[in-house]
Amino acid sequence: MPTTAMRRTASTPSTQRSTSPQTTASQAKRTAIAKAQAVAPDIPAHIGSTPATTFRGDPDLFGQLVQDHDRHRALLAMIGETVGASPERKKLFQELALELKSHAAAEEQALWSTVMRNPQTTDDARHAVSEHKSIDDMLADLAARDMASAAWMRRFAALREVYLHHIREEEQEQFVAAQKHLSPTDVRYLHTVFNRRKKAEKASTKIEKKIKLKK
């Protein structure tokens, strides 16, 4: 008769299966959406399908960046479900603005300032930083306008389109290129830098209000 130790060993394959990459990615996405919904639990977060990426669910810098992106996708979707200058819209927009600003600042310090030193990825870094500035300007413009107006929602829709394009490009192209020039040790260190900087930025960042005039 098998001993207790032998029976425990024999049952291991069926009771302790490793989690598949697909499951890990799904869990990461659900976690990101849950963080967004904590701001306004009664507002749905229908983000739909997301661009394919190998980084979702990874416990490293790029996985953290993608999880932030999914949180931002949820916040954008939730704002789109709100009406007028409701308390929910105000709370969600404030959270979105703080998230995007702190995420961008941390990403620039942890990733793009490092990647910019490599001639093969300098253009990617400059492109990402330039888009961060444009998105920041759009946030300041929205913050300065009447949130209850139809014009505000049109401007918000433009921000949403620009930001979704930006993060799709990062996930599918720029992160892929950057990873090729970073060692696993680099990525682990930069992950720590990102988390530290984002936490500090989110605690101290102020939402600027500035109308963006057409040129």
TrEMBL record:
Residues of the region (Disordered) are 1-29
The Low complexity compositionally biased stretches are: 7-28
Q: From which residue to which does the signal peptide run?
A: none
Locate the Hemerythrin-like domain: which residues? 64-175
Please state what the protein is called: Hemerythrin domain-containing protein
